[in-house]
């Protein structure tokens, strides 16, 4: 009797844990706002990105426009890939 209950309940428990952990893993994502200046659109535009300010990788871009950490678009505030 005990093994029948265990065999029928165990897949349900595994499914619930798998679904719960799949949502828990995305909670650690960091969202960075990136700013760029598109001459065709008035003002500074913003977008979300996974790039960081002090990264060591290539410069982050939206299309052909470089992303910055602040809306002032100052040199030294470039966002780079982690």
Q: Main sheet?
A: 2 strands, antiparallel
The 3D shape can be described as rod-shaped
What's the number of extended β-strand segments?
4
Structural class: alpha+beta
Q: Give the low-pLDDT segments.
A: none
Span of the ends, CA to CA? 54 Å
Structural account:
The protein has 82 residues and is α+β, with helices and mostly antiparallel strands. 28% of the residues lie in helices and 20% in strands. A two-stranded antiparallel ribbon has the order 1-2. It has a two-stranded antiparallel sheet with strand order 3-4. A hairpin with a 6-residue loop joins strand 1 and strand 2 (44-49).
Write the layout of secondary structure elements.
Blueprint: H1 2-24, E1 32-37, E2 44-49, E3 61-62, E4 65-66
Antiparallel strand pairs: 1-2, 3-4
Question: In brief, what are we looking at here?
Answer:
The protein is of the alpha+beta class and 82 residues long. The chain is built from 1 helix and 4 strands. It has a two-stranded antiparallel sheet with strand order 1-2. The chain has a two-stranded antiparallel sheet with strand order 3-4.
